[in-house]
Amino acid sequence: MSLAQQNRPSVREWIKSGEPVIWLNAAAVTISALAVIALIVLLAVRGFSHFWPNDVLQATYQLPGQAAVPVMGELVESEEVPVEQIRGSGIAYDGDAAFLKRDLIKRGNRDLSGVDFGWYLDTYLTDISKPAEVLVLERREWGNFYGRLVAVQEQGESVVDVAANAQLAQQELAQRLQRATDLFEQIRNIERGEIGSINYAMEQLRLRGRALDLRADEMTAAAMTDARAAIAEERAALDQQYEALMAQLSELYQALNRDQIAVAAVDGREAVIPLAKVVRAYYPNSMSTFDKLGFYFAKLWEFFTDEPREANTEGGIFPAIFGTVIMVLIMSVLVTPLGVIAAVYLREYAKQGPLTRIIRIAVNNLAGVPSIVYGVFGLGFFIYIVGGNIDQLFFPEAAPAPVFGTPGLMWASLTLALLTLPVVIVATEEGLARIPRSLREGSLALGATKAETLWRVVLPMASPAMMTGLILAVARAAGEVAPLMLVGVVKLAPTLPVDGNFPFIHLERKFMHLGFHIFDVGFQSPNVEAARPLVYATALVLVVVVALLNISAVTLRNRLREKYRGLDM
Predict the structure, then answer these.
(1) What DSSP line would sit under 469-522, residue for residue?
(2) How confident is the model at residue 567 (pLDDT cuts 50, 70, 90)?
(3) Cα–Cα distance measured from residue 148 to residue 255, given in angstroms and rounded to the nearest whole number
(4) How many domains does the chain have?
(5) Last residue of a domain, one of 234, 258, 282
(6) CA angle at residue 363 from 358 to 364, to 5 degrees?
């Protein structure tokens, strides 16, 4: 035996050294990191590629024994299918291939054909081309329209005919569409801004009048008359503002509905589409790479900042982003003091005995309770009991319509605070346990009270542990969906929980949430193929939002840990 073989450790000694465990841990971390990266890449590719303006192909599709059918649309994906499946669907394929390629084409024109997407066997697609004059209309309803521009119209009369001057028709379309878009934005701002504020003020006046009716026995006749006169005067002023705005809206709507375009589908059928219902019009086959990049980023910006439309399969997700973030922030404000107070009591004040151990076991068990149970509890306790009593005590004039006795942002935040409370308690207790007893005794020896010791010595040093608990709470709460379906989240919220009407933050309102939006778009949408890319994109946005919230908490925790680094000494 050589000297090198004698010095080589045996397998048993190698295992005892702990080196295999190190390699296993490194492999596990590497696999986990790769899995996370692969997930993010998958979501990004499947989701954000949806906003790229793909070329539109035109082809002829003719199955054996059937008439030729013209096809126009975007190629979405392709797949291989067994020939047996093709023949089982009634297609008389007589080739010798085992698999055939079929293409999913988004052909749009749902108002004409009834469906947006169709599967086509690649073998029977012929005369494939990408004409430069193909026009794509992204509409506010009925999805995309694929075809050719025939004429630009005003009040039903043709202004520019494509056959006479195609370039002038395209320029006229762009100008009139920009005008229609500006008018649409003005109308929406008036309806949701000024008229929305007037409607809110009118509702407050109605509630004030109802409150006077309920207090009729407590007020004198003169006071009642004066109060009603003040309400009538305010209502008259609001009515005058409302009439002026409605007259302005009438003029804007007349101007908005002035322009239309005549377009022809690939099968020759023509349609007249008002520009008021068009979001954008573009010619993808004639766009340069830079034009497509500009279009892509414009669509991305719309996705992040606009509201959803078309049963949440088009438009943006800003209300869902806003609702998710504000719910998590309110939940954090609620759960942190409750968890810290509970942990301080259990660690610093409660007598350590069987009862305290039982409480700790109960807290740990609460962390494993299914989230839907918390949703049922929130619905029964927070909404029906607490919210119902709040309505009876403070909002009797709103009866029978509930104010806080209905699902809303406040109850959703409280429910998730209760759900994540065990995590904060356990993390804070562990942080308190790490603080040396000598620090407490030194503070007390210098004349500080126990409360001062906790406030000035113990809690600052335990703050990194508190932040760790908050990070874990945010990570879990931001992705929860099941309890929110019972306590406040909705498919589409007409208004945000924050606006310009007093008290500005409306905790009683329902809200949208990214997790529920993913569920709704992915499993409740009537147009599955159109919704699928948005599911991936929204899922990636949810991951990014949770990551940003956690990064903010981690940064704060690291600063606190650096400030109180003497804790580890």
Answers:
(1) HHHHHHHHHHH--TTHHHHTB-S--SS-SB-SSTTSB-TTS-B--HHHHHHHHH
(2) very low
(3) 25
(4) 4
(5) 282
(6) 100
* Separation of first and last alpha carbons in the chain: 49
pLDDT recorded at residue 2: 55
| Burial class of 187 by CB neighbour count within 10 A (0 to 12, 13 to 18, 19+) | middle
Helices (H) and strands (E) in the chain, counts: 20, 13
Q: Alpha carbon 3 to chain centroid distance?
A: 67
Q: Do both 111 and 156 map to the same domain?
A: no
Residues 40 and 61 in one domain: no
One domain, residues 557 and 506: yes
Its sign, for the CA torsion 171, 176, 182, 184, is: negative
Distances (CA, A) of 504 to 40, 340, 453, 497, 554: 36, 29, 39, 8, 30
Residues with Cβ within 8 Å of 319's Cβ and at least 6 positions away in sequence, in order, are: 307, 308, 492, 493, 496, 511, 512
Spatial neighbors of 466 by CB under 8 A, at least 6 apart, are: 336, 339, 340, 424, 427, 428, 431
Residue 261 lies in a domain: yes
Q: Are residues 395 and 474 in the same domain?
A: yes
73 and 104 Cβ atoms separated by less than 8 Å: no
Q: Is residue 517 part of a domain?
A: yes
pLDDT for the residue numbered 7 = 57
Single residue among 81, 100, 132 that ends a domain in this structure: 132
Question: 466-486, pLDDT tens digit by residue?
Answer: 888 888 888 888 888 889 999
Residue 61 domain boundaries = 56-132
Cα separations (Å) of 285 from 58, 135, 151, 171, 289? 11, 9, 20, 17, 11
Q: In this structure, is residue 9 part of a structural domain?
A: yes
pTM, two decimals, is 0.89
433 and 550 co-located in one domain: yes
- Nearest CA to 265 out of 71, 528, 97, 404 is that of 71
Q: b/e per residue, 200-220, with b = 16+ CB within 10 A?
A: bbeeebebbeeebeeeeeeee
Q: Judge whether 162 lies within some domain.
A: yes
Query: Are the beta carbons of 81 and 102 closer than 8 angstroms?
Result: yes
Is the domain of 11 the same as that of 80? no
Q: How distant is the alpha carbon of residue 146 from its chain centre?
A: 29
Q: Are residues 213 and 323 in the same domain?
A: no
Do 43 and 64 lie in a common domain?
Answer: no
Q: Write out pLDDT tens, residues 370-418.
A: 999 999 999 999 999 999 999 999 999 888 889 999 999 999 999 999 9
